[in-house]
């Protein structure tokens, strides 16, 4: 029963340093968030000790009566949250959920249509080095010159290639997808529609983004992005049509024992996601992203070659276009890091620079909204970012402004 700090001071020091980093800097990686203490508490419980291969009520191990309760609560809550008839809360991650979902509705060698990685898609939507790209025949679709998914191209490619699956979803895209139009195209060519809502699930739960569940055959998500829970994945479906195939793709198809401690934490986060407080937080997330986009299209930003893809945002992130800036994505990321703001560089459509450098930044507001940031705070962050991307920026002055914001909204005040 020796506590971590005594048993393993080296690991404890890394954990402490990470807590301090999260508390003292501004986290603006669009795929990150801060899980509530209760969620982390559930994740740090004895449920980590339990083997529970199978599903609630149908396990391959004894002693599952309590993890069954926690897993069933998670299933019931997420079904209710998104209006789904089917849910699987066992996927260890978003990528695991996607792997299981794809193998449940398609066979290796089948054709899949997904948004090109370089245009905002995810690795699991057909990137060449990913299982999806290696085992399926991938036809990528793209965004148009305005930065919007080119639905005419989706329809044309669908008709030309008769895909088994059309994937709608993204990791870097600032607008809503037209799920009804994807459904129409899928029906026209006899394809399944899989929506990966990993990024925007929290917005959907809050009723601030269209819900893909009524349109898609299968919906996957992570639980740790806008949804604000523990790191993990889920699979949902509007009906039970694929329930057997989806369940058996997760277990025994790709996974063994589920992480019941994480599943309990997912259940807690789904309770939070159904609350009024969560809805209000998602609204601040959206407001923050809009404030940031508005700041980065102003004349002084344009004058130094900074622009915003698609001219704004409807979601929790902004894609900054640096093609006309003297900074590349790497340099801009480093600069913001220097003043205490964490973002990630991101390839933009038709990026002239290589993927490790890029000409873009992806900046998100979920973590700061969770931290309590209000519109006035987002205005200040947006201004700091705009100033940091200018030549001759004053790193010390900007860092002081960042520290003032971090101090104004303490993160995990009870943790040390
Ligand atoms: N799907 C989308 C759209 C994502 O953006 C991500 C994560 O970046 C994933 C799936 C994969 O999630 P994970 O990192 O948990 O495997």
Automatic annotation (TrEMBL):
This is Serine hydroxymethyltransferase. Catalyzes the reversible interconversion of serine and glycine with tetrahydrofolate (THF) serving as the one-carbon carrier. This reaction serves as the major source of one-carbon groups required for the biosynthesis of purines, thymidylate, methionine, and other important biomolecules. Also exhibits THF-independent aldolase activity toward beta-hydroxyamino acids, producing glycine and aldehydes, via a retro-aldol mechanism. Signal peptide: none annotated. Homodimer. Residues 4-385 form the Serine hydroxymethyltransferase-like domain. The modification N6-(pyridoxal phosphate)lysine is found at residue 225. Gene3D superfamilies: Aspartate Aminotransferase, domain 1 (3.90.1150.10), Type I PLP-dependent aspartate aminotransferase-like (Major domain) (3.40.640.10). (6S)-5,6,7,8-tetrahydrofolate binds at residues 117, 121-123. Pathway: Amino-acid biosynthesis; glycine biosynthesis; glycine from L-serine: step 1/1; One-carbon metabolism; tetrahydrofolate interconversion. The lineage of its organism: Bacteria, Bacillati, Actinomycetota, Actinomycetes, Kitasatosporales. Keywords: Amino-acid biosynthesis, Cytoplasm, One-carbon metabolism, Pyridoxal phosphate, Transferase. PANTHER family: SERINE HYDROXYMETHYLTRANSFERASE (PTHR11680), SERINE HYDROXYMETHYLTRANSFERASE 1 (PTHR11680:SF35). GO terms for molecular function: glycine hydroxymethyltransferase activity. The record marks 224 as: Plays an important role in substrate specificity. It catalyses: (6R)-5,10-methylene-5,6,7,8-tetrahydrofolate + glycine + H2O = (6S)-5,6,7,8-tetrahydrofolate + L-serine. CDD domains: SHMT (cd00378). It is an enzyme of class 2 (transferase). Belongs to the SHMT family. InterPro entries: PyrdxlP-dep_Trfase (IPR015424), PyrdxlP-dep_Trfase_major (IPR015421), PyrdxlP-dep_Trfase_small (IPR015422), Ser_HO-MeTrfase (IPR001085), Ser_HO-MeTrfase-like (IPR049943), Ser_HO-MeTrfase_PLP_BS (IPR019798), SHMT-like_dom (IPR039429).
């Amino acid at each position: 029963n020796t506590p971590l700090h005594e048993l393993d001071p080296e690991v404890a020091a890394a954990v402490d340093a990470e807590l301090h980093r999260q508390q003292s800097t501004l986290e603006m990686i669009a795929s990150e968030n801060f899980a509530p203490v209760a969620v982390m508490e559930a994740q740090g419980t004895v449920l980590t000790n339990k083997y529970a291969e199978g599903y609630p009520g149908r396990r391959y191990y004894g002693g599952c009566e309590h993890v069954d309760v926690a897993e069933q609560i998670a299933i019931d809550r997420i079904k209710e949250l998104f209006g789904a008839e089917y849910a699987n809360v066992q996927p260890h991650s978003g990528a695991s959920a996607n792997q299981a979902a794809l193998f449940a509705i398609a066979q290796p060698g089948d054709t899949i249509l997904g948004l090109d990685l370089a245009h905002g898609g995810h690795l699991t939507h057909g990137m060449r080095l990913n299982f999806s790209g290696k085992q399926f025949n991938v036809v990528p679709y793209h965004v148009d010159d305005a930065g919007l998914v080119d639905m005419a191209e989706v329809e044309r490619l669908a008709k030309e290639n008769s895909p088994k699956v059309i994937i709608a979803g993204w990791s870097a895209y600032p607008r809503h997808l037209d799920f009804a139009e994807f459904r129409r195209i899928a029906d026209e060519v006899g394809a399944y529609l899989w929506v990966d809502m990993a990024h925007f699930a929290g917005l959907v739960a809050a009723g601030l983004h269209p819900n893909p569940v009524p349109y898609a055959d299968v919906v996957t998500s992570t639980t740790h992005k806008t949804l604000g829970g523990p790191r993990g994945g889920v699979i949902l479906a509007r009906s039970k049509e694929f329930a057997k195939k989806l369940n058996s793709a997760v277990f025994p198809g790709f996974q063994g024992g589920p992480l019941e401690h994480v599943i309990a934490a997912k259940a807690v986060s789904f309770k939070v996601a159904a609350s009024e407080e969560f809805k209000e937080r998602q609204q601040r997330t959206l407001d923050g992203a809009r404030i940031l986009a508005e700041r980065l299209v102003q004349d002084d930003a344009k004058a130094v070659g900074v622009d915003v893809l698609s001219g704004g945002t409807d979601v929790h992130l902004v894609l900054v276009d640096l093609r006309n800036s003297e900074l590349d994505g790497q340099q801009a990321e480093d600069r913001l890091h220097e003043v205490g703001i964490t973002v990630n560089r991101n390839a933009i459509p038709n990026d002239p620079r290589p993927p490790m450098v890029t000409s873009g930044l992806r900046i998100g507001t979920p973590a700061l909204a969770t931290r309590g940031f209000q519109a006035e705070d987002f205005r200040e962050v947006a201004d700091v970012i705009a100033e940091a991307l200018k030549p001759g920026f004053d790193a010390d002055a900007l860092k002081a402004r960042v520290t003032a914001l971090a101090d104004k909204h303490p993160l995990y005040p009870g943790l040390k």
